[in-house]
Amino acid sequence: MRISRSRATVVAIAAALTAVSVAGPANAAPRHQDDDHLTPDTQFVMEADGSSGLTAGGAGIPNIDSVKSTIRTYYGATSAGIANKTSSPYIAEITGIEAAALAELPTVDPAAKKAIVFDSDDTTLWTYDMEDNAMHFTFNPALQDVWVQAKKFPATPGMVDFVNAVAAKGYTVFGVTGRGAAQKDATIANLDDLGYTGFTADRFFTKWATGQQPSYVTCVTAKCTTVEFKANTRKHIEEDLGYDIALNVGDQFSDLQGGYSDASLKLPNPTYYLPSADLPGLDEPKLAPRTHFTMNPDGSSGLTAGGEGIPNIDSVKATIRTYYNADATGIANKTTSPYISEVTKLSRQVTNTYVNQCRAMSRKGEKPAIVFDADDTTLWTYDMEDNAMHFTFDPVLQNDPWVQQGLFPATPGMVSLVNAVGEAGCTVVGLTGRNDLQKDATLANLAKVGYTQFTAANYYTKWKSGVTPVPSWMPADSPCADGVCTTIQYKSAVRAHVESQGYDVIGNFGDQFSDLIGGHADSTVKLPNPTYYLP
């Protein structure tokens, strides 16, 4: 089990420093820190290009699991990633946009050669089920081609009526899509099957096949950008074919940049982001993504935020990769990154205080203990999460090879901290959501990367339902007694058990708020982790 930094890690650090600076008598009841500050951020500033990862800190990056939950709420999607085709905030928003735009379009004489240009994906054809259910928000061009050739896409909600209505108002309909030439016939057939009546082969433009770039498209380099292709195609429609493009409709800003239309209509789409440099000399500040977001961690913001108010998942991935200084394949830099700087600074800030308290209490005959989570607290899972799993958790892959073969490096800065507090007299306790069958491999991994203070007797893994039993020490009235309980219930019960053995849990370290909530610790230290969220 995988186990966002707090609203301000500084708050957690300060609480830890305050709590551990004063040691109580050996027979005193353990002091417990309240959980009020253990809540994720809800306000974010994020540039679309991922550059915010250089400065935002882990807490300031939208957690990718929360982003997925928010997107699914917006689309009314099931946990399997299938969008509701009847009712959702997305359907309500996009059909409202279409109705408002249609009301603004006057009826025209077809002889006037007024045109409206439409993108395909998520403008006329709805790709959500492919993006979420089939691809898990990681684009796969081979799989996309299967969907295209099989004409599997439903219509974007309300768009069949919109396109047919503008055609009835006298406008000529054009399609301009980034799909390839080999997908043109299947795309038009998919549109026809859904009831679109305005698209014809001569007015439907795809990216050209290799070596067949049309003369009307000129590009700065050998590889044309999306804006260069689409803007030059619109220029061709206007200047060579003699139309006036009254409206250009797309779900990406790169569909709309570059001019050659009287107006643009942006449709919401937080499920991917396709950026492209604008044409040289053009400045279109209105055609740019939002940078300020409000997002609750449970996904509920998808009910009210609107598509543009949801952090785009591709921008979130780019921001996370910048934060971890990860390469394009999802491998984190192990030497230098904003993440390494932040987590090592955090560990240095608390080490001396905890070491001093461990020494002071142990000299008095007391039994101080510090609890450490595993994943992304002592063992660093980033390469598995991004490179191996593409931010979609796979318990089979997590178990083998990653856990059983001990492939995780140490979380930066944590080996020295854990070893130091153990050597200073604190009992080091491991507490992880990994299961009992993963305990030996986890301890071996910890030892391999340099931890010396973890022991089997003080390392707690969770029972595996139907395979390993609930611990005999679990109280009969505990929510976990029947083997089914939340992470918070499980971890707080273990900390209570540790205390029942006479220990004072002076510190509790974790990367998830669920590692820390539930008391039975004098202080908590939250490590940053925007790569998953376990409430």
TrEMBL record:
Pfam families: Acid_phosphat_B. Gene3D superfamilies: HAD superfamily/HAD-like. Residues 1-28 form the signal peptide. Keywords: Signal. The keyword Signal applies. It comes from the Bacteria. This is Acid phosphatase.
